[in-house]
């Protein structure tokens, strides 16, 4: 930012930012800080003085209590209770009261009859009205308190000599002490004695506070000042008490201590505390006050000191800046001026500047440079004249060399054109990895290619093979597979290898199986086209078939021709010590041809799995099976023998796992609904739309998204997951005897909630409004209520809680991750229920339902769970064998099918892999 300014300007700005601005900020902050600190010290001091003043006032009250106790023990008082000599004793007590500064002494018996009055000896034998505190004294307690007596009450008490000091409606502020009087044997309380000191116009109490604390003090009765005292004469700042500028009546109502500060010249700091009467109500305010002159003086000294430091620092900084500017900026400006002259070609100029620092050295270097430049300029002019002659000589030599280079280039291009394209790529990039790898080999082969070529001809068969290879390459690009090579009609690909700058996919076993399933589908589409082509060209095909030899015609039947492929897949394990698990990436070839390919036992295993397979089948090895078995349906194959590698197992990919294989089979839910899912659930799953597509097609949702997401088919499908959670919620709700209307609403809400949570957000995919998808036979209000409760949970049994718990159990108990046990561990149903109980937010009845449906089934024997009710056959069996076989396949499990066939034809079952699928027409079952 500062680079566009000149050096002098930048120097001034830098000094301002580095020195002047921080100094100003520091000075202002210090002044404000110390001013507040001094002010706070003044407040703390006056609050401390107020607490001491309050203690002194309390001591005055204690003194009245002590005086009351002392008078109650006088013999004449005790004698008074037995004899009627009150007037005489009252006159005696008046003398004692003057010495103790007591204005009123009153003695009553236990019937509250006045026996003695020191201030009015003749006014006795009357009833005493103040019974609230005399009753407490008659119980044996001595105490003191502040009391305000109206002038009328004083007249009733007989006090007349000092009433002139009060106004007509005024009151007296008194300190009152009261004590019980015992009889001569001290066996019982015979009466009470009450002593009072009227503080009006008696400044002794506040003067004592003022002298002790060296402050001004005051006492108010209600909101009127009755006593004030100035600062003692020996105090540093002598002043009289000045009423603070506050509403004392309001402060009295607030009934708490306060302070008021005025930090101006001549101001003061005042603190007050309420004085409470016998009932605890505020009767007045005790205040202390101190002047602020000493604090202001301290603050001014601090401010002057800080400003002085700032001025001195400013002068020093300015002096340093001036010195630096003189010793740096001015010489640099001169150097710039001379450099401009040199740039214009005026060499030889020098500067006169004598200094021993770096600027002086720079000036000397500049002068030397200027002189040398002048000399070099002269030499360059001389060399330029010689260079022209040399250029003419070298031009002829360069033309000859250029012709030789063009000839060599042409020869090199001719050589590179003969090389394999893979060699050029490896030479240019050299980014492929060699050695042992963790990858998956896929081998796909077109079945009966020779027969098809003989019957269809090279031209027609070539078109179908071109389509097959085109679809293969598309699928390999989609599923991140690396095309390795073609071996005749075979396609070899490797999954899990990095391509260019892209990282290797950790999901390559799933990628390979998903790619193969789609490759089988592509072959089926090509087969449909081929069958149509056979019908269109039937005459020429018959002619070609008739031209074959008798043996070939017997082996090839036109009606049995099918365009099918079979696939073998195997995954390597570089950490294994077995050769069958190893795959190595190698460079095969010579100088003119190099092939980057895979070798090893794992590759041989994949080729043998493919060659031993049937048309339309996908066979996988043991390592691949361990990784993908929780997502895909598999069935065992007969072992195959590999030369030098022993006997190895194989497995056939049937399709994706269905929803009930993903719901933990050892539960009552599986037993109840595996063969008969709720009809409404099936209807909703097949008809609800969440955007452009239906839920049953949501597995293809990536077609509508611009983002690159993981393949949803690797997660057993959103369809299966939503259906699984809906089944769990449905089972719990039915267990709780929920009616049909609520059950249907619960199913819809469960499906919609889970599909909304699982589909990623995208501008290309917008969720539909659920109201538009609710069927007519489902109560829309109930659905909206359940969905709203998902956002705002409600107490008790409700559909939202059931849906939430079903999702929690599904997530905790049933593994749906892409790579089994790598992302999270599956826990038992009992552990999942325990976690919900610890949470403490679910209704006990709902928890009981889940325990009965899940934990009981999980703990039961597997044999007991397998005992399902016999499958229900349709009322009328079809006559067509193919339809009957289809019903048997849809109704019975593979084990039940084998058991049924063993009973029907035991002799024919031996050695059959799947007797319900004769021939080679078995199709891959794709779920969902």
Write the layout of secondary structure elements.
Layout: H1 7-72, H2 75-80, H3 86-99, E1 104-109, E2 114-117, H4 131-138, E3 143-150, H5 151-157, E4 171-182, E5 189-198, H6 204-213, E6 216-221, E7 224-229, H7 248-254, E8 258-261, E9 268-276, E10 282-291, H8 293-343, H9 358-418, H10 421-429, E11 435-436, E12 440-446, H11 449-456, H12 458-478, E13 481-487, E14 490-495, H13 508-536, H14 538-546, H15 550-555, E15 565-571, E16 584-590, E17 593-599, H16 601-611, E18 618-620, H17 622-628, E19 632-642, E20 646-656, H18 659-662, H19 668-673, H20 679-687, H21 718-735, H22 740-758, H23 780-791, H24 799-813, H25 829-839, H26 844-859, H27 862-866, H28 881-891, H29 894-904, H30 906-909
Helix pairs in contact: 1-6, 1-8, 8-9, 11-12, 12-13, 20-22, 21-22, 21-24, 21-26, 22-23, 22-24, 23-24, 24-25, 25-26
Structural features, described:
By secondary structure, the chain is of the alpha+beta class. It has 30 helices and 20 strands. The chain has a 7-stranded mixed beta sheet with strand order 13-14-12-15-18-20-19, sandwiched between helices. A hairpin with a 2-residue loop joins β16 (584-590) and β17. α12 packs antiparallel against α13 (508-536). The radius of gyration is 55 Å and the shape is flat. The relative contact order is 0.05.
């Amino acid at each position: 930012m500062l680079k566009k300014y000149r050096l002098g300007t930048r120097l001034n700005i830098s000094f301002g930012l580095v020195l002047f601005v921080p100094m100003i900020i520091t000075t202002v902050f210090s002044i404000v800080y110390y001013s507040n600190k001094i002010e706070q010290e003044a407040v703390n001091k006056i609050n401390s003085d107020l607490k001491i003043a309050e203690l002194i006032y309390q001591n005055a009250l204690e003194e009245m209590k002590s005086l009351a106790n002392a008078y109650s023990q006088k013999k004449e008082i005790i004698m008074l209770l037995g004899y009627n000599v009150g007037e005489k004793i009252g006159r005696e007590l008046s003398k004692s009261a003057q010495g103790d500064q007591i204005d009123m002494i009153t003695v009553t018996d236990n019937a509250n009859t006045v026996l003695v009055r020191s201030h009015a000896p003749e006014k006795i034998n009357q009833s005493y009205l103040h019974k609230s505190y005399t009753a407490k004294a008659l119980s044996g307690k001595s105490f003191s308190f502040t009391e305000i007596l109206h002038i009328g009450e004083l007249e009733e008490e007989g006090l007349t000599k000092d009433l002139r000091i009060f106004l007509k409606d005024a009151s007296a502020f008194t300190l009152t002490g009261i004590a019980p009087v015992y009889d001569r044997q001290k066996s019982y309380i015979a009466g009470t004695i009450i002593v009072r000191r009227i503080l009006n116009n008696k400044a002794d109490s506040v003067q004592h506070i003022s002298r002790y604390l060296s402050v001004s003090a005051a006492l108010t009765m209600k909101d009127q000042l009755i006593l004030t005292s100035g600062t003692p004469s020996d105090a540093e700042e002598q002043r009289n008490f000045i009423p603070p500028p506050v509403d004392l009546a309001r402060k009295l109502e607030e009934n708490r201590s306060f302070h008021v500060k005025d930090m101006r010249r001549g101001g003061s700091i005042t603190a007050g505390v309420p004085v409470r009467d016998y009932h605890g109500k505020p009767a007045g305010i005790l205040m202390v006050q101190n002047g602020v002159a000493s604090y202001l003086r301290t603050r001014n000294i601090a401010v002057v000191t800080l400003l002085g430091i700032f001025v001195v620092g400013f002068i020093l900084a300015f002096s340093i800046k001036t010195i630096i500017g003189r010793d740096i900026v001015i010489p640099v400006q001169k150097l710039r001026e001379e450099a401009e002259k040199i740039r214009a070609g005026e060499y030889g100029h020098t500067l006169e500047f004598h200094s021993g620092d770096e600027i002086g050295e720079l000036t000397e270097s500049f002068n030397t440079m200027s002189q040398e430049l002048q000399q070099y300029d002269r030499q360059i002019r001389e060399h330029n004249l010689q260079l022209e002659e040399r250029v003419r000589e070298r031009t002829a030599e360069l033309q000859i060399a250029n012709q030789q280079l063009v000839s060599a280039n042409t020869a090199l291009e001719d050589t590179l054109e003969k090389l394999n394209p893979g060699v050029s790529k490896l030479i240019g990039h050299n980014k492929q990895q060699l050695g042992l790898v963790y990858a998956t080999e896929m081998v796909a082969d077109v079945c009966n290619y020779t027969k098809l070529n003989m019957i269809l001809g090279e031209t027609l068969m070539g078109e179908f093979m071109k389509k097959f290879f085109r679809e293969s390459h598309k699928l390999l690009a989609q599923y991140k597979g690396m095309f390795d090579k073609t071996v005749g009609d075979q396609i070899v690909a490797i999954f899990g290898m990095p391509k260019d700058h892209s990282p290797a996919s950790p999901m390559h076993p799933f990628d390979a199986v998903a790619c193969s399933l789609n490759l089988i589908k592509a072959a089926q589409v090509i087969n449909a086209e081929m069958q149509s082509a056979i019908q269109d060209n039937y005459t020429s095909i018959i002619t070609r078939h008739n031209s074959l030899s008798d043996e070939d015609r017997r082996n090839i039947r036109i009606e049995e021709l099918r365009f099918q492929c079979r696939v073998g897949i195997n995954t390597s394990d570089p950490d294994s010590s077995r050769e069958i698990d190893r795959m190595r990436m190698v460079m095969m070839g010579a100088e003119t041809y190099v092939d980057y390919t895979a070798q090893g036992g794992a590759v041989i295993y994949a080729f043998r799995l493919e060659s031993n397979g049937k048309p339309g089948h996908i066979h996988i090895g043991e390592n691949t099976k361990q990784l993908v078995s929780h997502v895909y349906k598999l069935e065992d194959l007969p072992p195959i023998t590999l030369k030098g590698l022993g006997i190895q197992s194989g497995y056939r990919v049937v399709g994706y796992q269905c929803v009930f294989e993903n719901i933990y089979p050892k539960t009552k839910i599986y037993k109840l609904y595996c063969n008969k899912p709720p009809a409404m659930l099936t209807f909703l799953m097949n008809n609800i739309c969440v955007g452009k597509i239906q839920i049953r097609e949501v597995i293809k949702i990536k077609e509508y998204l611009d983002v690159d997401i993981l393949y949803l088919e690797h997660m057993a499908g959103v369809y299966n997951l939503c259906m699984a959670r809906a089944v769990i919620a449905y089972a719990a709700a039915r267990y709780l005897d929920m009616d049909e209307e609520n059950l249907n609403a619960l199913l819809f809400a469960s499906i919609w909630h889970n599909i909304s949570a699982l589909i990623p957000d995208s501008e290309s995919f917008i969720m539909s409004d659920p109201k538009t998808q609710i069927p007519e036979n489902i109560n829309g209000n109930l659905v909206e209520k359940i969905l709203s409760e998902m956002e705002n949970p409600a107490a008790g049994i409700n559909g939202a809680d059931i849906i939430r718990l079903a999702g929690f159990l599904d997530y905790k108990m049933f593994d749906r991750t892409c790579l089994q046990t790598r992302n999270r561990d599956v826990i038992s149903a009992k552990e999942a229920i325990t976690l919900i109980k610890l949470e403490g937010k679910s209704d006990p009845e709902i928890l009981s339902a889940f325990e009965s449906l899940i934990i009981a089934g999980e703990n039961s024997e597997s044999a007991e769970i397998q005992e399902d009710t016999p499958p229900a056959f349709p009322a009328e069996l079809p006559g067509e064998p193919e339809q009957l076989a289809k019903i048997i396949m849809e109704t019975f499990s593979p084990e039940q099918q084998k058991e049924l066939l063993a009973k029907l034809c035991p002799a024919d079952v031996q050695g059959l892999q799947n007797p319900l699928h004769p021939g080679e027409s078995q199709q891959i079952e794709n779920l969902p």
